[in-house]
DNA sequence: AACGTTTGCACAAACGTTTGCGGTTGATAA
DNA sequence: TTATCAACCGCAAACGTTTGTGCAAACGTT
């Protein structure tokens, strides 16, 4: 069965299609009588607009592109939820593309968004991405682009992130304050800017606290199980008394590793993490963490892009929005002296 | 800057737009000379097709709608990954809508998919959904619809699921075989068909094993922390020696609850779960589970809908695809005698 | 009664493609 | 020479909307 179009209604009501179009959106040019008749008819005939045609005519899709490097269980779901929540409320739709941490796929995805006429683009970069040429095209057409979570330094796009260095320092500082002197930093994929920022923060803090003579060792793991084995190895040589996990994915490897080796947490080794907040609650013991709120980040990113969508004041210089965070202390660390 | 269209190229090359259109897709009607010239020109002018126009003209969007009840960290990410993987490879795109377990939002989402001319629809139902009238419209236009994970009984849509009753029985049977005689069943949201199927399976098995005189108690929890407190309560009265958790989300509450009460696993109480497989590995002790593979489910669902998309043999009666599963034994249960 | 002003609707172009058909070449065969 | 036939390309309609403009009738004003 073919869908009914505005044209069918027009024929049925013996009016022109323009009249139907206007009547359906309560245009005052059309008499009340006809307006109601057409509305009625539209219902009866089960009419629903063809958005593709509307898009073409209006040159606007009400679609936001969302490109993420991967769909895994940490952080991303919260972000998607946050984004989706505000996007859907605002009558926009989400075209979701995964780039699988592959630069070529990311480029392709941007192209797909472009070709499908998205009104805006939200993107978390792949860990292979080192420049943003593929986003210029969007920019040149004044399609708002907002980077979130996984970003790059020195670009001229808006970005929503946290202060990575500071977040790390808050965590590590807490370890130091509670007596840790042999601290292991466990980070994510080396190629991520997020990783280097957090690593920098780590080193900076250690440097500033050199009076405490902290011994450190930093490692990188690109997934939970790599983190797990890194902890295993570190425990056979370095023997940390405190571990900083840069993310949930890392944390998920740290705790099981320690438990398997029967290391007492926090007595023999404290653990602290940057986290979305769920995992720390279900691990044993519950983990202290700096709360990096994915839901909120998603909402912020969405709000921001919607705002850019309405205020087409083309050239406000780009803005970097730093989300606030909060330190939550649980049993995986000792109390402050 | 305006995007270059086929028309611009036509003007530039002094040919008609139809020639450009054909040249760009290597149509043999166009001489090689012109074809190459136009391809070249298209590159130089940075031409990219306007998919909206193509959609309108071809009456095909290459978009698959994906509607899910919620974006949380369990199961869904794997499914999305699986779906996305095969969808993207096949040159389709994913319009993702969340219904937040709200029937009205689900209906709205289906409408959005319809209006945007998706070529197919993948949907996991909200827990409020009790009938599928809102999907009929799609069906009547021969738009393939595939239900997955969260489905309904007695419908005439294709569905990709696991054998819930059987899966449950495998788990519970293992508990019984390893000596458990006081078994607590902890299930998800009562309104889900998945829940009732698993509950049925549970009861059926217990009934069939009545010679063993198994004491049981079943509870329902709609999230991790409800599950947690259910276990707390149960342990003050029923005192199970085996717990079956119907999902990762439930399991995430069970283990911490037991650990907090210092219950020895599996000595005092065994734990088994239906799971996607990640969580059981990072909990302490590692949990035995029936592997319900989200990634695979996603792939299957996507493959199936793509296949329906090509073979437009309209009326094959609907099919229910049961995914295979596998029991993985870890330390949260005792070994078989 | 002549004029301007609303009111209410239809016409047609436009958005960027695809595609059936028809027409113009030049070459080949009869 | 004429008929035949590829080879090659353009015309125009179509997909379903939105929207600027035009036009007729009805109304109100002197």
Verbal overview:
The first copy, chain A, is α/β, with parallel strands linked by helices. Chain A has 13 helices and twelve strands. Chain A has helices spanning 6-13, 17-24, 32-44, 51-58, 76-89, 103-115, 133-140, 164-177, 193-208, 224-237, 248-260, 279-282, 294-310, and strands spanning 63-68, 93-98, 120-123, 145-148, 158-162, 182-187, 215-220, 242-245, 270-275, 288-291, 320-323, 326-328. In chain A, the strands form two sheets. Chain A has a six-stranded parallel sheet, sandwiched between helices. Chain A has a six-stranded mixed sheet with strand order 7-6-8-9-10-12, with helices on both faces. The model of chain A has no long low-confidence stretch (mean pLDDT 95). Chains A and B meet through α4, α5, β2, α6 and α11 of A and α4, α5, β2, α6 and α11 of B. β2 (93-98) of chain A pairs antiparallel with β2 of chain B. The structure holds a DNA duplex (30 and 30 nucleotides).
Q: Please state the overall shape of chain A, judged from the principal axes of the Cα atoms.
A: elongated
Low-confidence stretches of chain A: none
Order of helices and strands of chain A: HHHHEHEHEHEEHEHEHEHEHEHEE
Please state roughly what percent of the residues of chain A sit in beta strands, choosing from under 5%, 5-15%, 15-25%, 25-35%, 35-45% or over 45%. Answer: 15-25%
- How large is the radius of gyration of chain A? 26 Å
Tally of helical runs of chain A: 13
Largest sheet of chain A: 6 strands, parallel
Q: List the chains of the largest interface with their residue counts.
A: A-B, 55 and 55 residues
The oligomeric state of the chains shown is: homodimer
The N- and C-terminal alpha carbons of chain A lie at a distance of: 75 Å
Structural class of chain A, by secondary structure, is alpha/beta
